[in-house]
Structure formats: C-alpha cells, structure tokens
Design a protein that fits this description.
Strand 7 and strand 8 (93-100) form a beta hairpin. This protein has one helix at 72-82, and strands spanning 2-5, 14-16, 27-30, 38-43, 48-52, 57-64, 83-90, 93-100, 111-119, 124-129, 134-140, 143-147, 152-165, 170-173, 176-183, 188-201, 206-219, 224-237, 242-255, 260-275, 280-283, 290-295, 298-301, 307-311, 315-320, 325-331, 334-338. It has 1 helix and 27 strands. The chain is mainly β and 339 residues long. The protein has a domain at 1-129. This is DUF4097 domain-containing protein. InterPro entries: Toastrack_DUF4097.
C-alpha cells in the first residue's frame, strides 16, 4: 500500500507551491505509475474535480476562510493543528480525505481544502463534500457524488451517473447511459444527453435541450423548458409553467400553477397534459391519427383531417384521421389544439 500523509509530504513525490491562493495548488502528486481505476474523495469544506484524459495527478488546494490567501507556512501550521489530510493509493484505488481533527472555535482559522484529480478516462468515482462544488468530466464508469453546499457540473461522462446537492445548481451536458441528479435548492440544465435521465429539484427551474431516451424532469418551485427531445418525456412542476418545443415521441406534462405549451413533431405511444391553473396550447403533427380526449373551460381545435366524435365548448372526444395514439388534455383555462 502506498500512503502519503501530509506530514510526510516532503519525503514523498509531492511538490509544494510557493504561492497559496484558490488558483494555485498547495501540493501536487503524480499518479502516473499508480494505474488508478477508482477515486474516493471526501472533504468537509472544499470543491472536488475529477477529469479524465490528462496526465494522472492529484492537486490539493488550500485557502483560508472567506478565500484568504495564506502563506505556505501558515497553512501547514493550521493543517498540523486542526486537520487530517490523507492521500493514499492501493490496488488501483485513490483515497483522498481532508477533515477536521476537532471543532474549530475560531471560524477565521478554518480552511477550505479542495481536490483536483486527473486520471484515465475509464475511472469510477465516489465523491463527497459538505461545502463546495463537484465537477466531473471526460469519464466512463459509475460515478457517485454528493455535496451539501455547492453545484454539480457533469460534462462528457458515460456510465451510471448519480449525484445530489442540497444547495446548488446542476449542469449536465454531453453525457449518456443512466443519469440521476437531484438538488434541493437550485436550477437544472441538461443538454446533448441520451439514455435514462431523471432530474429533480425542489427550488429551481429546469432547462432541457437536445435529449434522447427516457427523460423525467420535475421541479417544485420553477418552470420547465425544453426543446429537441426525442423519446419519452415526463415533465412536471408545482410552481411554474411548462414549455416543450420540437418534441418527438411521448409526453406527460403537468403543472399546478402555470400554463403549458407543447409542440409535437411526432407522437408515439401517448400525449398526456394536465394543466390545473392555466391555459394549454398543444400542437400535433398533421396527418397523423389520434384518439382525442380534450377537456377545458373552453376547447378550441382546428381539425386537420377527418374527425369522428363529439365536439362541444368544453370538450372534444373522438377519432382524428381514423384514430391512433391517445391524446388526453385537461385544463382549467382555455385549451387550444392546432396542427
């Protein structure tokens, strides 16, 4: 087992930086000969970044509270007195941990300890921080990460991706396979992704762009906006509007406090729309057959093709162009269906 403790750093292949700030690593240790396949990082007050495809190494960033720029000597003194900084490699596993030895009574003496890890692309991660952001990029494999006080940024990652934050936004792009991301206090943006995608926030908006596969996106406190989505989409909000453009496949869209706008370029299994407190605008592809069940305070529908069924002020129920995929719409306000 190769183990590198902070107090042995001068005897290890680690290099101290001469200036200490948030952009300069406090120490750097090469991982070129370690063949790291799994990364475990745990820190109580800093950010974590893991990136594949560059020269393998780990960088440690240490700054004072409120981003104070401290001297190397002052940082070493505080680390020795109040923290445990441990970097170890064993059997292809990298373990990097930074934690307080005890409660620090003077908050001005506390440190933020962050890690940047550069590894091979085929690397799995298990990351945890209570006070910073997490960023992963250019990786394959299983990725698990959690923060209590920062954002999540995922770019060009293929595998099983599971992440959670209690106080930040989420941005995921150019990623695939299985994606499950949750935040309790921020917005979510997902673009150029495919696979099985689940996104959830309790306090922000959701933006979806160019997604393919199964997509479930829910928020309790914002709007949902999407475009260029192909597959099965479930989008819901309790506190905003829903706008989905250029959608091909199946849609289940709902809101309790806003309007809904959906533009379908192709309908596969179904369209289901539930608008409790606003109007609904639905555009369907021309010449396709549907089984319609559309209800609202006032239903406006411009028929494109042959229709058999019942058309009234508050509902339209019947078959369009001989029938086909079910289209169910509920709205407390006006409902407009065009082609």
């Amino acid at each position: 087992m190769k183990k590198f403790l902070f107090f042995l750093v001068l005897a290890s292949p680690v290099y101290l930086a001469s200036a200490q700030d948030s952009k300069t690593p406090y120490l750097t240790r090469s991982l070129a000969s370690d063949n790291v396949k799994t990364v475990f990082v745990n820190t109580s007050g800093g950010s974590i970044s893991v990136k594949g495809g560059e020269e393998p190494r780990i960088e440690v960033y240490v700054v004072g509270n409120n981003n104070q720029n401290l001297s190397k000597e002052e940082i070493k003194k505080r680390l020795d007195e109040d923290y445990t900084l441990d970097i170890a490699v064993h059997g292809g596993e990298l373990h990097a941990t930074a934690k307080q030895k005890h409660n620090i009574n003077n908050w001005r003496k506390s440190l933020s300890i962050g890690f940047k890890v550069y590894v091979n692309k085929a690397t799995e991660t298990n990351l945890n921080t209570s006070g910073g952001s997490i960023s992963i990029a250019n990786l394959t494999g299983n990725q698990n990460f959690e923060t209590s006080g920062g954002s999540l940024n995922i770019n060009t990652v293929a595998g099983i991706i599971k992440g959670e934050t209690s106080g930040g936004s989420i941005n995921v792009a150019n990623s695939s396979k299985e994606i499950e991301l949750t935040t309790s206090g921020g917005s979510i943006s997902a673009s150029n992704c495919q696979g099985h995608i689940k996104l959830e926030t309790s306090g922000g908006s959701v933006r979806l762009d160019n997604l393919k596969g199964y997509v479930k996106a829910e928020t309790s406190g914002g709007s949902v906006n999407g475009s260029k989505i192909d597959g099965e989409l479930i989008a819901g909000t309790s506190g905003g509007s829903v706008s989905l453009m250029d959608v091909a496949g199946s849609v289940d869209a709902s809101t309790s406090a806003g309007s809904i706008h959906v533009q379908m370029t192709r309908v596969d299994k179904y369209v289901k729309i539930d608008g409790n407190s606003g109007h609904v605008d639905l555009q369907l592809p021309a010449k396709q057959g549907f089984n319609l069940d559309v209800r609202g305070d006032r239903v406006n529908m411009s028929v494109n093709g042959t229709f058999e069924g019942q058309k009234e002020k508050e509902k339209v129920v019947g078959k369009l162009n001989g029938g086909g995929s079910p289209v169910e719409v509920r709205g407390d306000g006006s409902v407009n269906v065009t082609y």
